[in-house]
Amino acid sequence: MFEKRANRTEISDLGEFKLIDLITEGIEIQQETTQYGVGDDAAVLQFNGNEQVLVSTDLLVEGVHFHLDYVPLRHLGYKAVMVNLSDIAAMNAQPTQITVSLAISNRFSFEAIQELYEGIKLACKKHKIDLIGGDTTSSTSGLIISITVLGKALPEKIVKRNGARENDLIVTTGDLGSAYAGLLLLERERKVFEKTPEVQPDFSGFEYLLERQLKPEARLDIVSKLHDLNIIPTSMIDISDGLGSEILHICHQSKVGCHIYESKIPIDIVTNQVAEDFRIHPITFALNGGEDYQLLFTINPTDYDKIKDDDSFIVIGHIMDEATGAQLITTADTAIPITAQGWDGFRNNQ
Amino acid sequence: MFEKRANRTEISDLGEFKLIDLITEGIEIQQETTQYGVGDDAAVLQFNGNEQVLVSTDLLVEGVHFHLDYVPLRHLGYKAVMVNLSDIAAMNAQPTQITVSLAISNRFSFEAIQELYEGIKLACKKHKIDLIGGDTTSSTSGLIISITVLGKALPEKIVKRNGARENDLIVTTGDLGSAYAGLLLLERERKVFEKTPEVQPDFSGFEYLLERQLKPEARLDIVSKLHDLNIIPTSMIDISDGLGSEILHICHQSKVGCHIYESKIPIDIVTNQVAEDFRIHPITFALNGGEDYQLLFTINPTDYDKIKDDDSFIVIGHIMDEATGAQLITTADTAIPITAQGWDGFRNNQ
User: Fold this and answer.
1) Which of A156, A285, A61, A306 is nearest to B141 (CA)?
2) Is A339 in CB contact (< 8 Å) with chain B?
3) Which residue of A has its CA nearest to B48?
4) Among A14, A141, A161, A174, which residue carries the largest CB count within 10 Å?
5) ipTM above 0.85, yes or no
6) Residue B119: helix, strand or coil by DSSP?
7) Which CATH number is A148's domain given?
């Protein structure tokens, strides 16, 4: 971090074909649904007729979604894939393939792109995802990453945002706000580094927060657990923009309200400490911070017994009627309306 | 063209949700394979178990792939979709769904993005394609469009680049080089406009070339015709980078050589005239110009009788053994090796 590499091969010296050959080197098909991957006008997949196919896509822009002065390219590649896998997990489904398109300015060497792909390939390997295609081109400024993910599931297993019903329990799968705490720490150190480059940042004690920011994990383990426990959530979403924004999506699309209990929202102890340092209420990190990539779902109360002994599942509230609206019940037992103040790419860039 | 619109709504005033609501307004599902489109973490598709699924993706960057000073946004949207549909046509398959991701700088108003989407929707409507998802975010500079297309075909109908065999006939589906001629004309007028903005360009007589550049059509009609004629090409590709580059892909992947006859390559009469004006040999337009989006395919000679009376099919050469290499046989009956000099995003940007 905070340094430049010495080796440099210009991408223009390789040409597009050679570049694609090099970055797709060593890719082996892992999924039985993949018939034919990289190398023609289109990839070819064969799904079982009983399975439905899921598709989601994300576009990441340098200077808007990531800053390369404190995000190593390998982590960026890993995270870009995980963010997409998380969208498929959020439908209670299994991701199977991705396409990766890059626009690269001539600031980037081949070695830099190779590092990015190492992260992409590592994320794919972890979840047996096939990289089946993409497009690699130049940009006039910066790096742009566009990933599309495909997945599969039996139709009766797919969970949308619109199925939450009154009295359902609201569940999340891990502590919230840590990725945002990690981001604040990285940004603070970047400012220090800009003024005094000789001072190397000391992040000891904060490793967990940095990992949550730089190397998030899609909760596909939760999808497996739900399957094993024979639970199909009534609604589900992944927490990319903050708990506040996501629960509003579920309430809005399910036409319901909710009570979320401040005292139940899981927040890591170091995240609490960072929030205090920055003089921000830790609940704000959880509600508005974003990039947690935990799952947020609702279950029928009759399923509660199946999850109550498992630490992965944290019940943080329950669904109310629509007239109640979405409310945070504070530790002082007052009800505050939840509003969405998550990431907004358009405002970030003003 | 060459003008600015008066109405302007800032995208940041709308916010992402409202923007997505507005641009996805009026989208109706056309394909029986689409179960659920825009509005959740992922779209859901259901393919017939006999069909295979095709996936392709393209990334278009302002200043590299298009210049908005002479490409109207509506045309850009239309073309961005067609380019992707063409990739599915090039596999002898039927496109069914697209996702569209945009990164937009704050230079663009909502009205501008609406125009872009009008073109996207028009292209979708023409071929009954469902727009099932995407991602809309800000960019630090310029416009970036990432489209992923899905399609379907029976496995035995899918045509790759690697099936050409010695003696197969090489066929294309319309005149080549016109899109490039259109591009040169637009660029010339842009330079005139920069110096003397009061002079409006006069493109009369060149409408066909401009249309080929600004509003290309994916040759899905050819896919239907091949089906009706009961022809399955032995190899196929679409001509996006110029005939030279594409025939080399087929030869390389099929491990064969070829003879292409200069006299047989279809070139429009006005394209010939523009080439003369620019003092470039018209065959260079066809070989290296690119963006024609005609199909290039090979058929077994026994299929010749089925196509010989149809003007849509133009036989331009035949497949040779690998040792011969890929050669252009000129009108003077000399053999010149074909080299790839098509579009190269990386060099364009140096």
Assistant:
1) A61
2) no
3) A49
4) A161
5) yes
6) helix
7) 3.30.1330.10
